[in-house]
Amino acid sequence: MENAQLDWTADGLIFADTQYDYFLADSLTRIPSPKTNFQEGLFGMRSSDGQPTIVGVYNQGQGEDQFEYVNETVVSTADSADHSEIEGAYFLVGRCDDRVAGVGQTSGEYLQGEYRSDDWFERTHMLAWLTGTDDGQEDVVSVKVGPVSGIAADDAPCVDNTLFYLAEFTDAGGGPDLALHAWNLDSGERQELPIRDESGLALNDQEALPYSQYGSSSIRNGNLEWMDGVGRVWQTSLESGVTTMLFQVEMEPLTRWTLVEFSESNLLVVRNDNDGEKLELITVDRNTGKELESIEIDDWVFDQMASNIVHLYSIAVPPGV
Fold it and tell me: Residue 152, Cα to own-chain centre: how many angstroms?
């Protein structure tokens, strides 16, 4: 499974492959659920009757019509798996209470063409509920012009039915700039807050900021906390976009081996050490930036990854860590 994700809830650790969904608690439960091999997001939830549930979003690719694009949702309990095809390419997904929502590029019946602002291309994007709808299909809330690049998250934070994410936007001069986007699933309104320092200057380091890492636990105290491509951890005000640096995680610039997970109290990072010969899993205190623990990952794993035999896509921590 490409881009395979993990989620760890009070019910256990969940994951999936192309044939099954899995609950791992005191024992392993395997639910048959054949599906395509690219995952957009995976979430452990509870059904309306209280059953532990796995919700996955999968990318099936272009539909029969060249303007159609198909994703699939798979909702699994211990007894069965329900599959639904949905229109759209949802490269950003997040859990909003007991439902999953996403932001995707418009396609099919929602397609509204391409827009151009100076030399910076933009396309229309749509915000939609992907689960919990009456007919099992997507429920598109809003369609708006959006940035071409930077919108991607498999576990975007959602507060009060608002998805938050970092992405580029077209500034007054026609060029790309980084902003905090907040798109509300009730009203359909989208807010773009340019990322600025306390003096009002744009923070637009193209070597670091576009490679931002964050997740569903990143929001606290009215800020989105995130890590950039060179290990700096920032906080961005949800009200103003004012952004300040919290601390630096010592690491090589982001590579295909770098993984970041925000827990309630800590930041967990899989990083290359400075000589690039091994991988480490480190735990960093989100309040102080102090490195609490470092665990070297077995050389066999590193060797397999270096040979493109094994890929690391996700890490997860239990609730309360």
Answer: 6
Check if the beta carbon of residue 204 is closer than 8 Å to that of residue 196.
Answer: no
- Using DSSP bridges, classify how beta strands 190-194 and 120-129 pair: parallel, antiparallel or unpaired: unpaired
pLDDT, tens only, 165-185: 998 766 555 556 788 999 999
- Distance CA(124)–CA(132), nearest Å, equals 24
Residue pair 55/74 in contact by the 8 Å Cβ criterion: yes
The DSSP H or E segment spanning 90 is strand 89-96
Cα distances (angstroms) measured from residue 34 to each of 1, 72, 80, 99, 152: 11, 11, 12, 22, 25
What residues have CB less than 8 Å from 172, skipping those under 6 apart?
A: none
Helix (H) or strand (E) holding 236: strand 232-237
Q: What is the DSSP string of 93-106?
A: EEEETTEEEEEEE-
Any idea what DSSP says for residue 169? E
3-state secondary structure of 268: strand
What SS3 state is found at 222? coil
- Distances in whole angstroms, Cα of residue 107 to Cα of each of 73, 82, 103, 124: 17, 24, 12, 9
- Strand-pairing partners, residue 116, are 121
Name the 3-class secondary structure at 32: strand
Q: Show the tokens assigned to 155.
A: 């576990």
Task: Count Cβ atoms below 10 Å from residue 195 Cβ, excluding itself.
Answer: 19
Q: How many degrees, rounded to 5, is the angle at CA 216 between CA 211 and CA 220? A: 95
- What's the predicted TM-score (pTM) here? 0.91
pLDDT in tens, 201-247: 777 776 666 678 999 999 999 999 999 888 999 999 999 999 999 99
**The two structure tokens encoding residue 174:** 């026609």
- The helix (H) or strand (E) run that includes residue 301 is helix 299-306
